Prior knowledge:
Number of helices: 10
Oligomer: single chain
Radius of gyration: 19 Å
Strand content: 15-25%
Order of helices and strands: EHEHEHEHHHEHEHHHEEE
Bound molecules: adenosine monophosphate
Largest sheet: 6 strands, parallel
Strand order of the largest sheet: 1-4-3-2-5-6
Amino acid sequence: MLVVGSVEEVQKVRWVDGNLTWGLVPTMGYLHAGHLSLVRRARQENDRTAVSIYVNPTQFAPTEDLDKYPRDLEGDLGLLRDEGVDLVFTPTDRVMYPPGFQTVVEVQEITRLLEGTSRPTHFRGVATVVAKLLNIVQPAHAYFGQKDAQQAAVIRRMVADLNINVQIVVCPIVREPDGLAMSSRNARLTHEARRQAPVLFRALSTAQGAYRDGERQASVLRAHMQSTIAKASLARLDYVSVADPESLEELELVTGGALLSLAVFFGDVRLIDNLLLE
Ligand code: AMP
């Protein structure tokens, strides 16, 4: 496994044999089983697999947890080595945003809803860094988690709109045994907050149960999620949503599919989760 920090080194490895297909898994590190599920899928579907580890500052607002974001590069490299990854790209900020950098990628409508309401500059940072990573590695496939459902929708939109030559693959959410969606941020929860955090999945499951029992009013499904979250004393709800899975517009009635999603603070740790109603 090669670990490189410069764009030139990536491209040198990438183009040793231009006939080989590459899969790219972009991450911010502090890897867990959710990330590794993407890596395994990439390994299955490509000749070579690249993983990027980069905590991208432009997707964090000044008030957010950039400085506190957990990091463990040595641990991450050990896990990736065990998975048989070929190339790890660990750029610095100076490599990604050298002096003079002044271009951004802005996906417009779907970035204003859901996460975008609370984090208005987040997806500009995400789209820009992912566009750069796709251009640097030029993979046949790039792998993202359904955990960040809106991010996946934004990336798909960007790739279609800018004619980027890559197939976006979205992989299912990997959860802890108690239902909590795996996330690097879970490591920052206090003991008691960690104990309460499965309430996100419980809220989604309660709404799903109501849907299965025939409830189609989105407002009722939202109320189920809200009242479940309210039972966790440390949880502070940011939003709950029942939205169209593609446009991400809020629904009144669930007639086709729907994306149930929510964001909840435990102290300064913000967790998100979602569930698709088919
Ligand atoms: P991050 O390091 O948080 O930026 O995540 C890197 C990629 O892993 C993103 O595409 C995430 O959606 C995905 N991911 C994170 N957590 C999970 C999870 N629990 N299950 C599946 N994919 C995940």
